[in-house]
Design a protein that fits this description.
Strand content of chain B: under 5%
Number of helices of chain B: 16
Radius of gyration of chain B: 24 Å
Shape of chain B: globular
Distance between the termini of chain B: 41 Å
Order of helices and strands of chain A: EEEHEHEHHHEHEHEEHEHEEHEH
Oligomer: heterodimer
Number of strands of chain A: 13
Helix content of chain B: over 70%
Distance between the termini of chain A: 32 Å
Strand content of chain A: 25-35%
Number of strands of chain B: 0
Largest sheet of chain A: 6 strands, mixed
C-alpha cells in the first residue's frame, strides 16, 4: 500500500532554527498512506518535525507539504490532520466528552454533530463507559486513549502520534498497536514518533530515523534491524510481584539480565520484540502482575551512537 | 480496502458549520461561569443592586411624603439624607469594583489556561485561524460584563423611571436618556479596558496567579500617575491621568447625573481629576489593540513559546 499511493506528506530540504539552535537540518522525506515510524533520541528533532507537519511552526528553509499544500496557518490543510501530542493537553476538570465535543466544534461542526462525532471517537478508543468522567480522573492509559480519540474524531487523512505508547501497560500497548495498524490499513497516513525502537518496529512498515536534526536512516524495520543485529534493550517493569515475574521472565529467550528495582524489575533483552510479545501473553493469558513497561532511553541513544559512528 | 473495526465508520451525518470563534467564546464563557468566585460575585452584584433599588424606592416614598406634608425644609433634609445621585454613583462604584474582580478572575485564564494546559497546541492543529481564536477570546469579558455592568445600570435607570408619579415615566426616561447612554458608554469602556489589559497579560505567561497580581498592580497602581497628573496642567497631565484605567471607565457613570435629581456634584469634580476623554479612549483602545495583537500572535504558531 505504501508504495502505490502518492505521498500525503512531503518534506523538501526542510530546516528549522530556534535562534542559533538547529532544530531540523535539510530533511527530505516522504510519508505515504500506511504507518511510518519516526525514531530518534530526545532532542533529535522529532517534535520540531511534527510541529512543522502540523502547521504549528513555519519552516526556516525548505518546504513541507501535506496533501500538496503547505500547512502553516492554513485551515484547509490542518482540518485534514490529527495530532496526538506527547503531553497532556486539555482542561483537566472537564469531562472527556465535553472536551472532545468542543474540539470537534472547532472543525466547524454544529453542537449535535460534534457530540455524535465525539461519542463515536471515544467509543472507538474504548472509553465508552467513561464519557462523562473528568479527564483529570483518568489513568495514564485512559488519557492516552483520549488524546488518540481527539486526533481521530474528525476523520483526518494524516494522523501524527507523538510518543503514543509512553507509559502504557502491556494491554494498552497491544490496544494502541492494533489501532495504529488498523488506521494504516484504512489508508491513513500515520506517523508514529518514538524514542524506543521496538515500539515503532511492531507497528510501522517504514521507519525514518532522526538524530541532530538530520535523517540518519530510512527504511523498513527489517532493514534497520539488519543494521543492528541483536542490539540489547533494557526495560523497566513495574510490578507488585517482582520475584515471581523475574522467574518467568528469566525463562524467555534473549533475556540476558534481570535486576530488582524499588518498584519492580529491570530486564536486559537482546530480542525486544519477542520479549514484549511474551510479556503481553503473560498479562493476557496468565494474569501476570505487570504495571508500566518502560524501555530505558539510554539504549536507543546507544543505537544512535552506534549508527553515527558508522 | 478500508477496515472498520469495532463498528466504527467515519462520520456521515449532516455537517452544519458553526462559527469557530463562537465555539471558542462559548467554551470560555462556560469555563468562566463554572468558577465559583465569578458566580459569587454575580450574586453579590445582584444583592447590591436589590439593596440600592430598595433604598431608592424608599427614598422616593419619603420624598413624596415630605412634599405632601408641605415641608420644603423636610424635603431638603430628606434630599440631603438620601441623595439620589449619590446612591446612583455609590451603586456603580461598588458594582464596578466587583465587576473588575470578576473580570480579573476570568481574564487571568483567558490565554494563560491554554498555555498551561497546552490546549493551544490542539487549537493550532485545527482549522482555526488566528483571528477566530482572537475573536473568540475577545468576546468573553464583554459578555461577562453585560450582567455585571450594563444590565444593573440600565435596570436602575428604568426602575427610577417607573417610580415616577403616574404619567411621568416616559417623560422622565426620555429626559434622562443620556443616563442610559452613559451607562452603555461605561460598559463599553470598561469592557475594552479590561479585555485589552487581560489579553495582554494572559498571553504572556501560563501562570494565572502572576496575571492576577499584575492586573491588580496595573488597575490599582494607575492611581499614582493620576495623582501626579492632577498637579500637572495641559496635555501631559491629561496623559498621566489617563493611565488610571478604572478611572477611565468609571468616569462615564460618574458623569451620568440624572436631571431633576439634586446634588449634582460631578461637574465640579471634572476639571483636573479626569483626563480628557480623547486621552482616556486612546489609552483604552491602545490597550485593546496590543491585547488583540498578542492573542492573535499566540494563535499563529507555537514558536513564541519555544
Amino acid at each position: 500500500m505504501s508504495g502505490s499511493a502518492t505521498p500525503s506528506v512531503r518534506l523538501d530540504r526542510l530546516s528549522k532554527w530556534y535562534g542559533e539552535v538547529m532544530g531540523l537540518n535539510e530533511v527530505t522525506a516522504e510519508f505515504r498512506p500506511g504507518v511510518t515510524g519516526l525514531l530518534g533520541p530526545n532532542g533529535a528533532g522529532k517534535s520540531t518535525l511534527i510541529k512543522l507537519i502540523c502547521g504549528m511552526l513555519r519552516p526556516s528553509l525548505g518546504s513541507v507539504f501535506v496533501n500538496d499544500e503547505e500547512p502553516f496557518n492554513r485551515a484547509q490543510v490542518t482540518r485534514r490532520i490529527g495530532l496526538c501530542p506527547e503531553q497532556d493537553a486539555f482542561y483537566p476538570k472537564a469531562s472527556a466528552w465535553s472536551v472532545l465535543t468542543y474540539l470537534t466544534r472547532l472543525h466547524g461542526f454544529g453542537g449535535r454533530d460534534a457530540r455524535a462525532i465525539a461519542r463515536r471517537a471515544l467509543e472507538r478508543v474504548g472509553l465508552e463507559n467513561d464519557l462523562t468522567r473528568g479527564v483529570q480522573a483518568y489513568s495514564k492509559g485512559m488519557r492516552q486513549r483520549f488524546k488518540l480519540a481527539q486526533a481521530l474524531a474528525h476523520d483526518p487523512d494524516v494522523i501524527v502520534l507523538d510518543e503514543p505508547l509512553n507509559g502504557l501497560d502491556p494491554p494498552g500497548r497491544r490496544f494502541f498497536g492494533d489501532l495504529i495498524r488498523e488506521l494504516g490499513a484504512e489508508g491513513k497516513c500515520v506517523i508514529v514518533s518514538s524514542h524506543v525502537l521496538h515500539e515503532v518496529e511492531s507497528v510501522a512498515r517504514r521507519m525514518l530515523v532522526l538524530n541532530y536534526g538530520r535523517v540518519l536512516a530510512d527504511g523498513t524495520p527489517r532493514e534497520l534491524r539488519r543494521e543492528l543485529p541483536e542490539f540489547p534493550l533494557t526495560v523497566r517493569i513495574t510490578t507488585g510481584a517482582p520475584t515471581e515475574l523475574a522467574a518467568r521472565v528469566m525463562a524467555l529467550e534473549g533475556v540476558r539480565r534481570v535486576e530488582h528495582t524499588p518498584d519492580g524489575l529491570e530486564v536486559l533483552t537482546t530480542h525486544p520484540k519477542e520479549f514484549f510479545d511474551a510479556l503481553s501473553e503473560m498479562v493476557t493469558n496468565d494474569d501476570a502482575d505487570v504495571g508500566a513497561v518502560v524501555p530505558v532511553d539510554e539504549d536507543l541513544e546507544a543505537v544512535f551512537r552506534y549508527l553515527t559512528k558508522r | 480496502m478500508a477496515v472498520y473495526a469495532r463498528g466504527y465508520r467515519p462520520y456521515e451525518g449532516t455537517f452544519k458549520s458553526a462559527p469557530v470563534a463562537y465555539s471558542i467564546f462559548a467554551e470560555g464563557a462556560r469555563m468562566a461561569l463554572a468558577r465559583k468566585g465569578v458566580r459569587r460575585i454575580g450574586y453579590l452584584i445582584a444583592l447590591v443592586f436589590c439593596g440600592y433599588a430598595g433604598i431608592l424606592y424608599f427614598q422616593f416614598g419619603l420624598a413624596e411624603t415630605g412634599e405632601r406634608m408641605g415641608g420644603g425644609a423636610a424635603a431638603t433634609v430628606l434630599e440631603q439624607l438620601f441623595s439620589l445621585n449619590a446612591r446612583f454613583r455609590e451603586f456603580h462604584n461598588v458594582s464596578s469594583l466587583l465587576a473588575m474582580i470578576a473580570a480579573v478572575l476570568v481574564g487571568s485564564s483567558l490565554i494563560a489556561d491554554d498555555l498551561r494546559t497546552r490546549a493551544l497546541s490542539l487549537y493550532l492543529v485545527r482549522p482555526l485561524r488566528p483571528r477566530d481564536y482572537m475573536l473568540g477570546k475577545v468576546m468573553i469579558i464583554p459578555a461577562l460584563m453585560v450582567p455585571m455592568m450594563l444590565l444593573p445600570g440600565l435596570l436602575l435607570w428604568l426602575l427610577v423611571g417607573l417610580w415616577q408619579p403616574p404619567g411621568e415615566t416616559w417623560t422622565w426616561l426620555s429626559d434622562n436618556v443620556d443616563v442610559a447612554q452613559r451607562v452603555i458608554k461605561y460598559y463599553v469602556a470598561g469592557s475594552i479596558s479590561l479585555t485589552g489589559l487581560l489579553l495582554l497579560l494572559s498571553s504572556q505567561t501560563p501562570r494565572r496567579g502572576l496575571v492576577m497580581g499584575l492586573s491588580a498592580v496595573v488597575l490599582f497602581g494607575g492611581m499614582f500617575p493620576r495623582f501626579v497628573g492632577m498637579r500637572i496642567q495641559g496635555v501631559w497631565g491629561d496623559r498621566l491621568r489617563a493611565l488610571d484605567i478604572p478611572n477611565n471607565f468609571t468616569r462615564e457613570f460618574k458623569m451620568a447625573a440624572p436631571r431633576n435629581w439634586e446634588n449634582r456634584v460631578l461637574d465640579r469634580h471634572e476639571a483636573g481629576i479626569h483626563p480628557e476623554p480623547i486621552d482616556a479612549w486612546l489609552v483604552m483602545l491602545l490597550l485593546l489593540a496590543v491585547g488583540l495583537f498578542l492573542a492573535w500572535r499566540r494563535a499563529r504558531t507555537v514558536e513564541v513559546g519555544e
